[in-house]
């Protein structure tokens, strides 16, 4: 079995403290999976994603992305990663197209191919009419859609999404999930961090609930929902396994 | 290379979208250089014929004090004020006007001033003649004046600059000693019944101002030639502000996370900013040059003469811009907020300008400050510009300044890249 991500005994403490943001965490994500990375605020989700995308160095442990160890191959790995941060990672003064041209070109995508992908992506997101409008004139939902597009123009093998649907209307949420589903069907592995448990339950093929920098529950979504002989909701499982319930 | 090109396009688009900021970047230096040159030219040449009013209370009734006043007013572009509200000015009123700041200078000439000068010169001449020709029948004996030393009082408003005070005092001293000398010659003339007017009317030595570098062209440097290098440098270094704010803003936007996750080195992204802001600096520079050459004469100011110096000036502007950009990148990299970058950037530019000799000549500074000036990039730039514009220097003489500016740029960028990598990257 080949894995897209292999995390081996990863640890990270905050500077000058004993507090472990990530504590001896190990995890494997298969290719073409949609992993839901769930946990309360401060559980360590964003820190874990930062280490997986090369933005933070672990104190201990190793990470392999598509078989490449991160600390030695970060630039190679970044070429096959797509990152969609929770914040709108776009230039507000530039138009949607200008933003996408810039970020796509930074991944070295050929100009003609990039143009085609931008046009297709904008159309799929239902924003063709707004492609030449400045980002600061967009609604939250429209910004989220462009934010997602900017992270996938280079057709990455693996995408990290941090709360991709937070604060958006139902319509935008539907468009985003549809788009992500199509990417996954085309072979892209997705790591998705969210507080929206209903969305995660329906969208993720696998979930990992993280708290205090450790994995509390991990497995195929359909398997972990069956507990003590009955089908529970992901929300119930979440509450049972995170600090608020303990 | 294409990544740098695409990042340049993005930076240019960002600049273009901020029309007001764009206008400020290019227009403010032009406004600055016009304003400063206009004021300096007016002050130096008194082209507006502005006369500084000077209050005079003359308690003397003799001829000499009148001569001093007339000469002072004629030669120093002063306006004589001897009355206040239709009445003759008194010493007390004059002092009150100075104290309240309504007037700036008051000169009080003591009573019996002319007589005193005459008595003193007569006495000294007779003493001298008595020594040279001891026979008392050949020279009249004069009694030494018994009156005390006469004091001409000059009152200044505390707000008046020291240089003006010094000018007025020197003018007064010069005129009094001229008149004393004239009185001496007059006494000699009377004693010997001879014509000694050639001594006072003919100048034995003359002075001529020669600017060494422009000797062939027989030209004197104008305020424009002095101003352009200083204020151009000042404007170029102010690029630190928009550049550092641009970097800080990018760091504080969500875009920073995505930029860090890109398979692009921070040096690539930095290079695009360096090229774009270098372009901005050079456009600023050429705008100021064009204004100084073509607009100044229209405004009644002397035009800048750049004949044969354009390449030298361009090279100096290019290297000065690099130094400024390097410093801007460094500030932008270290600053965490806009509030840190903007005041620090602006204040440090002003400090660098002051110690670099942009406002006060370095040679007139105390020795410690002269040493400090030598490590100011603005001083390297200024000396380089002066070498090109005023001293007709060749490229070899520019090499030390160009090297220093380039090294300053490289050091700043290196520190910024190392810091960036250490703080932000895996």
From TrEMBL, chain A:
It holds the Pfam family ABC_tran. GO terms for molecular function: ATP binding; ATP hydrolysis activity. SMART domains: AAA (SM00382). Keywords: ATP-binding, Nucleotide-binding. PROSITE patterns: ABC_TRANSPORTER_1, ABC_TRANSPORTER_2. Residues 5-237 form the ABC transporter domain. SUPFAM superfamilies: P-loop containing nucleoside triphosphate hydrolases. This is ABC transporter ATP-binding protein.
UniProtKB/TrEMBL annotation, chain B:
Residues 192-423 form the ABC transmembrane type-2 domain. GO terms for molecular function: ABC-type transporter activity. It is a multi-pass membrane protein. It is found in: Cell membrane. The chain crosses the membrane at residues 20-39, 228-248, 274-298, 310-330, 342-362, 398-419. GO terms for cellular component: plasma membrane. Its main location: membrane. Keywords: Cell membrane, Membrane, Transmembrane, Transmembrane helix, Transport. Belongs to the ABC-2 integral membrane protein family. This is ABC transporter permease. It comes from Brumimicrobium aurantiacum. The lineage of its organism: Bacteria, Pseudomonadati, Bacteroidota, Flavobacteriia, Flavobacteriales.
């Amino acid at each position: 079995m080949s894995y897209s991500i292999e995390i081996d005994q990863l640890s990270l403490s905050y500077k000058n403290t004993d507090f472990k943001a990530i504590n001896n965490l190990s995890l494997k994500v298969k290719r073409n999976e949609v992993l839901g990375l769930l946990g309360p605020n401060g559980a360590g989700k964003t820190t874990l994603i930062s280490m997986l995308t090369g933005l933070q160095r672990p104190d201990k442990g190793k990470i392999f992305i598509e078989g490449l160890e991160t600390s030695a191959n970060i630039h190679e790995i970044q070429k096959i990663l797509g990152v969609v941060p929770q914040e709108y990672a776009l230039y507000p003064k530039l138009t949607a197209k200008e933003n996408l041209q810039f970020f796509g070109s930074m991944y070295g995508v050929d100009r003609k191919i990039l143009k085609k992908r931008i046009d297709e992506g904008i159309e799929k997101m239902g924003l063709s009419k707004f492609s030449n409008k400045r980002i600061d004139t967009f609604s939250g939902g429209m910004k989220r859609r462009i934010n997602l597009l900017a992270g996938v123009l280079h057709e990455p093998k693996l995408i990290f999404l941090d709360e991709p649907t937070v604060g958006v209307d139902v319509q935008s949420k539907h468009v985003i999930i549809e788009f992500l589903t199509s990417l996954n069907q085309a072979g892209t592995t997705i790591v998705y961090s969210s507080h929206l448990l209903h969305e995660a339950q329906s969208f993720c093929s696998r979930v990992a609930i993280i708290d205090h920098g450790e994995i509390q529950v991990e497995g195929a979504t359909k398997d972990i929902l069956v507990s003590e002989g009955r089908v529970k909701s992901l929300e119930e499982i979440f509450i049972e396994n995170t600090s608020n319930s303990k | 290379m294409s990544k740098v090109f695409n990042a340049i396009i993005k930076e240019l688009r960002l600049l273009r979208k901020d029309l007001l900021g764009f206008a400020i970047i290019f227009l403010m230096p032009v406004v600055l250089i016009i304003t400063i040159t206009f004021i300096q030219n007016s002050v130096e040449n008194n082209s507006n014929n502005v006369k500084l009013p000077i209050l005079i209370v003359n308690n003397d009734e003799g001829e000499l004090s009148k001569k001093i006043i007339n000469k002072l007013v004629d030669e120093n572009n002063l306006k004589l004020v001897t009355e206040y509200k239709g009445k003759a000015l008194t010493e007390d009123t004059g002092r009150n006007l100075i104290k309240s700041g309504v007037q700036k200078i008051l000169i009080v000439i003591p009573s019996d001033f002319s007589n005193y000068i005459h008595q003193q010169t007569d006495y000294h001449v007779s003493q001298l003649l008595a020594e040279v020709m001891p026979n008392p029948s050949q020279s009249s004996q004069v009694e030494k004046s018994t009156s005390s030393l006469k004091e001409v009082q000059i009152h200044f408003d505390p707000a008046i600059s020291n240089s003006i005070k010094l000018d007025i005092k020197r003018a007064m001293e010069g005129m009094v000693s001229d008149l004393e000398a004239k009185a001496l010659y007059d006494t000699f003339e009377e004693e010997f019944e001879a014509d000694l007017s050639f001594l006072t009317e003919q100048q034995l030595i003359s002075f001529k101002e020669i600017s060494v570098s422009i000797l062939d062209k027989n030209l004197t440097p104008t305020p424009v030639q002095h101003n352009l290098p200083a204020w151009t440098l000042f404007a170029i270094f102010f690029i630190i502000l928009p550049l550092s704010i641009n970097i800080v803003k990018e760091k504080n936007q969500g875009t920073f996370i995505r930029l860090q996750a890109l398979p692009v080195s921070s040096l690539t992204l930095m290079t695009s900013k360096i090229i774009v802001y270098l372009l901005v600096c050079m456009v600023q520079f050429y705008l100021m040059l064009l204004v100084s050459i073509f607009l100044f004469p229209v405004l009644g100011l002397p035009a800048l003469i750049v004949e044969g110096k354009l390449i030298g000036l361009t090279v100096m502007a290019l290297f000065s811009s690099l130094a400024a950009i390097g410093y801007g990148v460094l500030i932008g990299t270290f600053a965490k907020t806009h509030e840190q970058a903007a005041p620090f950037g602006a204040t440090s530019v002003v400090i660098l300008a002051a110690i670099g000799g942009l406002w006060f000549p370095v040679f007139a500074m105390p020795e410690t400050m002269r040493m400090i000036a030598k490590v100011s990039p603005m001083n390297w730039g200024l000396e380089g510009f002066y070498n090109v514009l005023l001293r007709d220097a060749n490229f070899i003489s520019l090499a030390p300044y160009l090297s220093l500016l380039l090294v300053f740029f490289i050091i700043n960028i290196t520190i910024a890249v190392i810091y960036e990598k250490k703080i932000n990257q895996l």
